[in-house]
């Protein structure tokens, strides 16, 4: 089902809306197009980081598998892991802004 809407011609002093918008003069940003062209290298993981990640994953997997499923300790453990993760991320960002 298509809804028909008639074209709206907004004019001011004989100028169309497109002409008004295209004639706007905005001052240039101090950032220029930096963020449009920025390509971060922080997403690349080195082999050493990959090995460390695998080691930590295995350690966490063992800790979770050794804790009974119905235990509140498992929830506490998950909470601690999440806190540790955010702490590590924030420390890394402080070291390498």
From TrEMBL:
<keyword id="KW-0456">Lyase</keyword>
<dbReference type="GO" id="GO:0016829">
    <property type="term" value="F:lyase activity"/>
</dbReference>
<dbReference type="InterPro" id="IPR008930">
    <property type="entry name" value="Terpenoid_cyclase/PrenylTrfase"/>
</dbReference>
<protein>
    <submittedName>
        <fullName>Trehalose-6-P synthase/phosphatase complex synthase subunit</fullName>
        <ecNumber>4.2.3.-</ecNumber>
    </submittedName>
</protein>
<dbReference type="InterPro" id="IPR008949">
    <property type="entry name" value="Isoprenoid_synthase_dom_sf"/>
</dbReference>
């Amino acid at each position: 089902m298509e809804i028909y809407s008639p074209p709206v011609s907004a004019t001011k002093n004989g100028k169309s809306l497109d002409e008004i918008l295209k004639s706007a003069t905005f001052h240039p940003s101090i950032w220029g197009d930096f963020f449009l062209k920025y390509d971060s290298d922080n997403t690349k993981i080195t082999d050493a980081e990959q090995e460390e990640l695998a080691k930590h994953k295995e350690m966490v997997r063992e800790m979770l598998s050794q804790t009974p499923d119905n235990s509140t300790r498992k929830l506490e453990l998950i909470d601690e892991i999440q806190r540790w993760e955010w702490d590590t991320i924030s420390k890394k960002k402080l070291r390498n802004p």
